[in-house]
Amino acid sequence: MPENLQTRCVIAGGGPAGMMAGYLVARAGVQVVVLEKHADFNRDFRGDTIHPSTLELMHELGLLDEFLKQPHQEVRELRAVVNGQAVPTADFTKLPTRCKFIAFMPQWDFLNFLSAHAKEFPNFQLLMQHEVVDLIFENGRVIGVRAKTSRGELEIRADLVIGADGRHSIIQALAGFERREFGVPIDVLWMRISKRPGDPEQSFGFFEHGKLFVMLDRGDYWQCGFVIPKGGFDEIKARGLPQFQNDIVGFAEFLRDRATELDDWSKIRLLTVQINRLRDWCREGLLCIGDSAHAMSPAGGVGINLAIQDAVATANLLAEKLRRGPVSVDELRKVQNRREWPTRLIQRMQVFIHHYVVTGQPSNRGNSLPFMLRLLKWFPVLRQLPARFIGLGPRPEHFRSPTAVQASKLSNC
Ligand SMILES: Cc1cc2nc3c(=O)[nH]c(=O)nc-3n(C[C@H](O)[C@H](O)[C@H](O)COP(=O)(O)OP(=O)(O)OC[C@H]3O[C@@H](n4cnc5c(N)ncnc54)[C@H](O)[C@@H]3O)c2cc1C
């Protein structure tokens, strides 16, 4: 017999969307259980960007000072190396936020920080190594989930199930949601190369004739992403490892003395990139947010921000009602109505970037810069536009749901 648990809200997935939603609804006094299938948050393929809008949110939650004590890099200007030329692309210093920078921090530090604070609420529970494998339905309404655990199966019944299980979401599939796919011409090879004293300090993006190589500073190593044409990994393998190492050195000459660390294809992971969006993000008893509702590509480094903004909107719109009981599908739809257009806009931008900036195909423009990048180089004021788009995103959310203390006062009225 499976074990049983009853709660107000159960969240599938402890990524940025799930952990932030869990933290916020717990803070508002809602009983919540977050289920994460892995044993920890330490996985290589997490993005490392904490955007100014998220930092602003941390300030609104009273967590900013402590958060910034975690090891991180503050990047006030994004620079890309395009066809050998360094081009400033985004200037965050004029943003109307407290923190006028992107904080680069390993995402597992961010998630550990958030979960540590969420656990301060007695009504919050995080269950690691709990993989959601099924939804429970009653008269067409979702009333809970089944999870696989090391001790067997667990059934959790809840007034609301939130699907925050990322771009390979099982929740959206089990719910029967219709998904629209937007073709993506690229995939990413993901690998580590050691960091040495004397290496440049900042994280990088190198663009060369439609190819892109990204390096994220993870303290003692560089987390590298090599963008390839979709389905092109077999061809790259056929050309051999020495050629691949040479390609990397072609982007970042300072890696010449250690590109050979990549001496086996098992050290190089293929990450498939997708962009898609659900037509409906909700049905009775269930709401999908973050990549589970709309898978984002790494282009522009905005998916984490968007996932967190979804979580904030969810808590703002639903937490108070959820504290009192089930919420109707019309209430759930308000989250989709609020977050869908910012999502559409960003996804359009990502599709544009894939097709016109990072194609994986050689360009015939020689070493000249694309026109838009030349504009950014000539007119510094224009760099504030990408900064707003990346740093805040369209329709940035602010924390509005009540804290548990306010909430208990409200319920006593
Ligand atoms: C290669 C690559 C690099 C990227 N880099 C960046 C970047 O630098 N900056 C940026 O902003 N965006 C980046 N993105 C996009 C970003 O990763 C996503 O948009 C963002 O992680 C979405 O957050 P999420 O919480 O919705 O989903 P996820 O981060 O995918 O989290 C989902 C969580 O759910 C868990 N889970 C999955 N299935 C289950 C289950 N059945 N039961 C329980 N738990 C489950 C997973 O283990 C995971 O912890 C990148 C994307 C890719 C593909």
Explain what this protein looks like in three dimensions.
A hairpin with a 2-residue loop joins strand 10 and strand 11 (152-163). With 413 residues, the chain is of the alpha+beta class. It is built from twelve helices and 20 strands. The longest helix is centred in the last third of the chain and has 28 residues, at 329-356. Mean pLDDT is 89; it is low at 407-413. It is globular. It starts with a strand and ends with a helix. Strands 1, 2, 8, 9, 10, 11, 19 and 20 form an eight-stranded mixed beta sheet that branches. The protein has helices at 16-27, 52-60, 64-67, 107-118, 170-175, 233-239, 241-251, 303-324, 329-356, 371-378, 384-391, 404-412; strands at 3-12, 32-36, 49-50, 73-75, 77-82, 85-91, 102-104, 124-128, 131-138, 141-149, 152-163, 179-182, 186-194, 204-208, 211-217, 221-229, 269-272, 275-278, 282-283, 286-288.
The count of DSSP E runs of length 2 or more, i.e. the number of strands, is 20
What is the tally of helical segments? 12
Instruction: Indicate the percent of residues in helices.
Output: 25-40%
What value does the Rg take, in angstroms? 22 Å
Give the structural class.
alpha+beta
- Unreliable stretches, pLDDT < 50, 5 or more residues? 407-413
